[in-house]
Specification:
mainly alpha; about 50% helix
Length: about 120
């Protein structure tokens, strides 16, 4: 019996799916071989079927496609400066008000004060 591969990457497993699919192996058999070699948690049966469909439609890339929508984080120098300016103008402004005004999540409405207690 072959030894199980403990360390693997998504790209490696996807390459195996592509290779076996190109050889005409059925998705159910591909999943079985991947589970035996990489372990049950490496790729689900439905994901194997999905990748086989994509490869059958002509996809060649093994990487993830760029995702649309807003970025996962809005923390940047610009937002930090905007929050700081709002707080300096009206120190009684609530986090909710700042978030609504700047159209950013509430958790990003926190500024770091200097450790020495001095003004920013």
């Amino acid at each position: 019996m072959a030894t199980s591969i403990k360390e693997w990457s998504k790209l490696a497993v996807r390459a195996v799916v592509r290779f076996l699919f190109s050889k005409g192996t059925k998705p159910s058999e591909i999943h079985k071989q991947i589970a035996e070699t990489y372990g049950e948690g490496s790729m689900s049966r439905s994901r194997v079927y999905q990748w086989c469909t994509w490869f059958g439609e002509g996809r060649t890339s093994l990487g993830d496609e760029p995702k649309s929508g807003r970025p996962k984080t809005s923390t940047n120098e610009e937002n930090t400066t905007r929050v700081d300016e709002l707080i300096r103008c009206d120190s009684r402004m609530t986090i909710r008000e700042i978030a609504l005004k700047l159209e950013i999540p509430k958790k990003l409405c926190v500024i770091q004060m200097p450790e020495d207690g001095s003004d920013c």
